[in-house]
Amino acid sequence: ETGRYMTHNYPENLTFYIDPAKFQNFLDRYRHTFRHKYKSPIVQRDTFWINYEDLSDLEYFQLNIYPHLCKFLGVSQSTNMKILRETVKQANPEEDLSSVIENYEELEYCFRYSDVTHFEKLREQEEVMKTGTMSSPVTNQQPVEEEVPRGDGCGGTWSVLLPICSRTISQQAKSRHSHSSNQEASFNTNRFSELTQSSQYNDSFDEACWDLLSGFCKSLKETVPPSQMGKFECVVGIDVDDKVYQPAKERLKAMIPCNVVFVDIQPTMYGKLCRIWNHLASKSRNDYIVLFGDDVRLLDCGWPQKIEDCFRNISTNTGLPLGAACVAMNDLSFPGFPTFPVIHRWHLNQFGTLLPKQFVNQGGDPFLFELYSRFKTSAWEVSCRLRNTIGGDGDARYQKYHINWRGHILNMHIRKLKKSVEVRNITGVCLDVVVPSYRTNNNDYLRRIALLRASRDGVYVKFWFVVDNPCKSHVDEVKALANELNAKQLEQSGNYFINVIHYGANRGASYARNTGYNYSIADWILFLDDDVIPDDNILDAYIGGIKRFPDAKVLAGMTTLPEATNTWTTMLRVCNVGYFYGVSKLRRHPPWAVTANLLVRGSRFNPTIQFKECYPKTGGGEDIDLVYQYKAFYPTSGLLATAAVPEAIVKHPWWNGGNLCYKQIRGWAWGDSMCILEWPSKTFMTFPNWIEHVTFIILPLAIYTKQPVTGLAVGSVVIVLEHLIKMSRYLPAALKQCEGDSIFYQLYVALGAGTVLSAQEITRVNAILRRFSLYSICRRVDWFDGQEPRIKLDIQFGSIIRFVLNVGITSIGFGSYWQEWRNQV
Predict the structure, then answer these.
(1) How far is C-alpha 810 from the geometric centre of its chain's CA atoms?
(2) What is the pTM of this model?
């Protein structure tokens, strides 16, 4: 019944769910219609505006509205029109929408920094309240936690999985079941550096093995309260042919301070820790499961209770079943990495095994943490510290074997977990920040980036600072900064950890970004330059954008350039060379955007997408190429593959400190000219521009006719004419930018603005000559990727006019030669 809610008020208990993506789509369609139809001076308006108040006041309607409405409809005012009864105003601007919209908190977070008036006002009110409460006393009232039913909660039972082995690594390498080919040895390297595999002991180290195990047992006894030790069980895995531990099981029972279950490890599993982990877990019947090694030293008393509390809090906060979580302990040997995750029996009941069968001996711990982080149920318990004396980020007692689990394997288990917990949407956000760093003495910028935080829980962030500079002092400075901030952060959580990668060389921005991009396991990668200043809310803004644009694979933030400070920067403003830095303000679905502030889908979804190293080290063209790769990889997304998030703002400085930067501009042109060869389908043909005309027409003519002076004169006229045309093109912008200055200065700025474009055109021709790429002559990159066919037509039409003028000048200049040639003929 259309309109039945408009004749009377809505029910008081009415609630509804608003999908953020559909709401954003509605806003985009509304704005597009308003800007391109209602406000357009060209398009005839096809809608008559009228509000509720006009309809409700019958007398006002008949006198002031009805005549205009009849004129709009093209009917006589004598026509009888029935007044609708559905005129009860439903919306109250002061109404508390949080009680009506079921997912109001989610919606508010997604649109918090957008220009939606309701949320904009709400944000302003919150800022005022926050300012007021900063000076008010803070109470220390603890939140009341819901009581969790007994069974899997407080006082749960524990299984410590403890594989022990007395064989040296040299003996393991000789095993017929181990992987020892040179190809695998080169592949199975440490996560961050190539480490040689070496043993900690010689062949006769029986007592050393016992000492190592004794240290673990002692730390377990000292950190688990005696009242809880009765709920502990050690599932000890021993190689079937182990000559030290197999004959000494009674000694092991006496040493380990809890109940012990022995499990034989068959030779087919030697060195395959993940499969041993699965095997030992299958023998467990307890609530909480954790894998330790005999080289682990537990440091904090009461760690089991803290972890159980963490599991209960996660279940209470998310509403998911108790045990649908992963809690990582704080490994001081490998900080910021979930080396020792604790898993609940619930996980085994759902998946059947602890880890997928594809795992060998690496990646199991981060896999579990990453799996549950998508559901906001991965957590760090940093107060539960331990030290891994042999493993961690150093040498291990087995050959490390990595598999690629980040893509299909992880996605498959995420889908299964989503089905198990019966959630509508995955709410956890995994977002890493990659910053290539070449500039020295810029720790203030890096610190600002590293302190970025999201305002909500369930956001998992890691920073990757990739030092693309062989200068040792710069590497040391970045590492010192990371160590300082990590130490402070680890007092609260293992989240927002800073990883520093360096390779002792300057390989360029593309290589550096690829390095961080490929290390990351996150669903989203935020690329930031090391000289930008991001807004404090940039992570929130991008996360809101992820929710609002679920089909997008590239989200473009807003990169603002400073106001003009001198004549050169005024010229840059006038020629609008930074258009695509601020493209997110101008287009909802930008054709591409700069990598100074760009969020893209993580490499685990699309590993073949990479920054190409054929582009300049300092940048230029690689950002266009990257976005085009995403569009090609996801062809069904179409225009929706990219989306603008203008509220995700960074401030970018002027290049070269605001001084002349033709070198930077030429670098961009050299790079984007590569896009012609890499993406020929994204190009179009024009007539020769001025520099192509001079290089490929006037110069050959001057050589052929042996008239260099004429060629020089004709070329000079073409150049002058071109820059006069460009000056006239940029003069309106110069008049506006330099308002109040003399006309001569304004003309000078307009002329200088034209030289910026000319420098790029000269560079592209130089690139054609250097590459011997005849295909690139008269070919241009479609910067708007088909979104603006009128702009392409304008460029082509303009090239025709210029070419006709240039041909005319050339014909006049070489006219005497043509006349002489004709007479000879």
Answers:
(1) 52
(2) 0.85
